[in-house]
Amino acid sequence: TAPVSVPRLRKMKSEGQRITMLTCYDATFALAMDRAGVDTVLVGDSLGMVVQGRDSTLPVTVDHIVYHSAAVARGLTHALLVADMPFLSYATPERALDTAHRLMGEGGAAMVKLEGAGPMLESIRVLAERDVPVCAHLGLTPQSVMKLGGFRVQGREEAAAGRLRADALAVQEAGAAMLVLECVPRALAAEVTRSLDIPVIGIGAGVGCDGQVLVMHDLLGLRGQHRTPRFVKDFLAGTDSIEGAFSAYLQAVREGRFPAEEHGFD
Ligand code: KIV
Ligand code: NA
């Protein structure tokens, strides 16, 4: 089958086919998840935590993402590669263009992901106008951890829910091709998903999104130094291989069996 493209993701949404995404940081795991048939692979700045053992994603650099992205790209033949823009690497449109150039040119990414709306809308607009596919990321944005004071569900109060609805429309309007919603109450995430034309990928955002993403280590039941969030499920339990765990996750997402009620927030 043809490699996954940006228009293909949009078509999947319009046809009601759920989109699958996994994070990945090296070529061998990339090969395994690509073979299992994942649609999109994210070189997340979560690598700061799961690969580098840091307490947050803030110390991750563009060089780090380029290094891991290039490795992952060599393992993929089918899935679309998304790479995270690190903290402050897209704070101005000029920096965003430089970062995207490196992630796509050296890293082999087909899409770049950045957190937030508001002041970031200009960066989204400038990238999109220059044909850089952008994935926005709203809800819990881990690069805001110092401001937020921790990792917790976002959009529970009515004012925050209203801001999220408006931000989601604004990133689409600015030209984003996809949106990740992290740790958002399931009803709100479903509502935002219905309100947008672009695909919405959830993590801790309920089953009502157009697709799902999980950090690879979490899916494999690996416990890190940090508390495992409730939206995580160990897909290695019940299978006997890593590729089997990837396949079980992909099938559960496509059939709407993951996330279940217990993985989401009210
Ligand atoms: O860095 C990451 O892994 C992410 C996903 C959790 C969406 O941004
Ligand atoms: Na990230």
Automatic annotation (TrEMBL):
Binding residue positions for Mg(2+): 45, 84, 115
Q: Where in the cell is it found?
A: Cytoplasm
E.C. designation(s): 2.1.2.11
Q: What does this protein do?
A: Catalyzes the reversible reaction in which hydroxymethyl group from 5,10-methylenetetrahydrofolate is transferred onto alpha-ketoisovalerate to form ketopantoate.
Tell me if Cytoplasm is a UniProt keyword of this record.
yes
Q: Name one GO biological process term.
A: pantothenate biosynthetic process
The reply on keyword Metal-binding is: yes
Pathway of this protein? Cofactor biosynthesis; (R)-pantothenate biosynthesis; (R)-pantoate from 3-methyl-2-oxobutanoate: step 1/2
Lineage at the top is: Bacteria, Pseudomonadati, Pseudomonadota, Gammaproteobacteria, Lysobacterales
Q: Entry's Pfam families? A: Pantoate_transf
Question: GO CC annotation: what is one?
Answer: cytoplasm
Q: Which cofactor does it need?
A: Mg(2+)
Q: Which family does it belong to?
A: Belongs to the PanB family.
Q: Which UniProt keywords apply?
A: Cytoplasm, Magnesium, Metal-binding, Pantothenate biosynthesis, Transferase
Please list the GO terms describing molecular function: 3-methyl-2-oxobutanoate hydroxymethyltransferase activity; magnesium ion binding
Q: Which residues form the active site?
A: 182
Q: How is the cofactor bound?
A: Binds 1 Mg(2+) ion per subunit.
Task: Provide the assembly information.
Answer: Homodecamer; pentamer of dimers.
Record's catalysed reaction(s): (6R)-5,10-methylene-5,6,7,8-tetrahydrofolate + 3-methyl-2-oxobutanoate + H2O = 2-dehydropantoate + (6S)-5,6,7,8-tetrahydrofolate
Q: PANTHER family attached here?
A: 3-METHYL-2-OXOBUTANOATE HYDROXYMETHYLTRANSFERASE
Q: Which InterPro entries match?
A: Pantoate_hydroxy_MeTrfase, Pyrv/PenolPyrv_kinase-like_dom, Pyrv_kinase-like_dom_sf
Residue positions binding 3-methyl-2-oxobutanoate: 45-46, 84, 113
Q: Supply the name of the protein.
A: 3-methyl-2-oxobutanoate hydroxymethyltransferase
Q: Which organism is it from?
A: Denitratimonas tolerans
